[in-house]
Amino acid sequence: MKVAIYNSGTQESKRLKRMIIQGLAKEKIPYDEEQPELVISIGGDGTLLSAFNHYEDQLDRIRFVGMHTGHLGFYTDWRTFEVFDLIESLKADTGQSVSYPLLDIDAKYSDGTHQKFIALNESTIKDTLKTMVCDVYVNAELFERFRGDGLCISTPTGSTAYNKSVGGAIMDPKIIGFQLSEMASLNNRVFRTLGSPIIFGADAVLTLRLDDDSTAVLSCDRTQLELGQVRHLTELTYSVAKQQIRFAKYRHTDFWRRVKASFIGGEA
Ligand code: NAP
Ligand code: MN
Fold first, then answer.
1. List 32, 45, 104, 221, catalytic entry
2. Which CATH number fits domain 3-96+249-263: 3.40.50.10490, 3.30.70.260, 3.40.50.10330, 3.30.565.10?
3. Which of 40, 94, 155, 248 has minimal CB crowding within 10 Å?
4. Where is the active site (predicted)?
5. How far is the centre of ligand 1, averaged over its atoms, from the C-alpha of 214 (Å)?
6. Is position 203 annotated as part of the catalytic site?
7. According to the CATH classification, is domain 102-243 in 3.90.950.10?
């Protein structure tokens, strides 16, 4: 099993990386950053998002493991004092894994081009210059005309991140689907949206059609897409991705216990 380490820039994560590399060498576990089968992310959930983004073209082969250097993370099971236990788990690896759904994004631009993205947490579409206006289609049928700050489309594991801040529900990551939540929608006698989050199932297709003069900006996890002056977004299509993210599951961390520990208090 070939292992790679993806770390945040901190001294602590660099030190841990050196320690793990030494441990791997001692156990004769090969290190390969180009074509790894296991990627150890050292940092926070944000670091794991970057590791995912870095290796997203190789998801069928790769399993991820997260070690957190800060507070308890949602994607990070291991603590910094557990380097030795992690190496022991790698030695005993039997390929065990747990998979979670991802979000597929297809963005169309005014110049006729389009681009594909895949999100682990969420994609947002926001306009900071003026009210964002878009038609929301569910399975190709017009559902509503949205006016407001923007929309957040989140995966089940991303539901505890941005989605939660904008009033979305936390989804059990065993549910295959995705969630749409509103950001400051305009609701009055003239303008109307559903006004509550929606959780879509595995086969749903969500399409957002933006107005011709749209200045809306798209994000995918940590990345904000730079569009420049020449083209603008015209249409976005969201669905559950064919690929999933796999984590090497050496130990069981109960999801709801983690939710409680992160947002209410207590031990994870
Ligand atoms: P950041 O500003 O450091 O992230 C914000 C917080 O979200 C951090 O505490 C981060 O944990 C945490 N987080 C990331 N993924 C999570 C998940 N799946 N469940 C629960 N918490 C999660 O930025 P970042 O580290 O680059 O992370 C990017 C993410 O930040 C985006 O994908 C988005 O979900 C979130 N975000 C939230 C808001 C908001 O709530 N208003 C605004 C922008 C972005 P770590 O400290 O472990 O990294
Ligand atoms: Mn972060």
1. 45
2. 3.40.50.10330
3. 94
4. 45 (proton acceptor)
5. 26
6. no
7. no
Residue in the structure block whose two tokens are 């006698």: 189
Ligand 1 atom closest to the Cα of residue 119 is 32
Q: Is 51 annotated as a binding residue?
A: no
Atom of ligand 1 nearest to the CA of 158: 18
On whether 121 is known to bind a ligand per the annotation, the reply is yes
Q: Are 41 and 48 in contact (CB under 8 A)?
A: yes
Q: Is 160 annotated as a binding residue?
A: yes
pLDDT tens-digit series, residues 31-41: 999 999 999 99
Tokens of 42: 């050292």
Task: Tell me the per-residue pLDDT of 59-105, one tens digit each, with 9 for 90 and over.
Answer: 999 999 999 998 778 999 999 999 999 999 999 999 999 999 999 99
Backbone Cα Rg of the chain? 20
Q: Give the residue from 235, 185, 187, 181 showing the smallest Cα distance to 211.
A: 235
